Amino acid sequence: MQGTKEMQVKIRRAEEKDASRIMELLLQVNNVHHDGRPDLFIKDRTKYTVDELKTILSNDETPVFVAVDGEDRVLGYGFTVIQSHEKDNNWPDITTLYVDDICVDSSCRGMHVGSQIYNYLVDYARGIGCYNMTLHVWEKNESGKAFYKSMGMQVQKTCMETIL
After folding, report:
1. Which of 70, 93, 130, 162 has its CA 20 to 30 A from that of 140?
2. Order of strands across the sheet that contains 64-68
3. In 3D, which of 155, 138, 103, 98 has the Cα closest to residue 121?
């Protein structure tokens, strides 16, 4: 499937039936992070357990969306969290769609599946009245940073560390 041709996908809310495929993609994401930061990510692990994933999938405050092909096979996902700032003392009363994770199966990268997921999330955020959409990207994830910049994202803040 690798190439530069745009693959048309359908984006829909993830369902429990998608959990095993999402777990496979979570493993791909973790290993990309492990390659950049093996001190922080354990190889061949996932961010969530199957039970944690099922809880996330059933929560309307943490909607997960999947990109599927014509046979309803999951090719990628977008994990999100709806964040309200209405009770924050120093923030205006805004809602943010935080993108916790976007992943496209390694066999489909370069086929614009990620940009379709991203654009769907932007439309979803606008549709529910969000002020902005934010995400974090690891500094060593050069392809991720380039992708988000190509989608028009700008740096909002920088997280720094000292390893002790």
Report:
1. 130
2. 10-13, 64-68, 74-84, 95-104, 132-135
3. 98
- The distance of Cα 65 from the centroid of its chain, to the nearest Å, equals 9
Q: What is the dihedral of CA 129, 152, 154, 75, to 10 degrees?
A: 80
Rounded Cα gap, residues 137 and 122, in angstroms:
17
DSSP state of 47: S
> Taking the CA of residue 135 as centre, how many other CA atoms within 13 Å lie in the half-sphere pointing to its CB?
23
Q: Which two tokens stand for residue 76?
A: 């990628």
pTM: 0.92
Written as six digits, the tokens of 66 are 């999947």
d(CA 82, CA 101): 13
Amino acid identity for residue 66 in this structure: V
Q: How far apart are CA 102 and CA 36, in angstroms?
A: 17
Q: Tell me the C-alpha distance between 133 and 153, whole Å.
A: 9
Q: Helix 50-57 vs helix 19-36: angle between axes, to the nearest 10 degrees?
A: 110
Phi-psi region of 117 (alpha: psi -120 to 50; beta: other; left: phi over 0): alpha
pLDDT of residue 157: 92
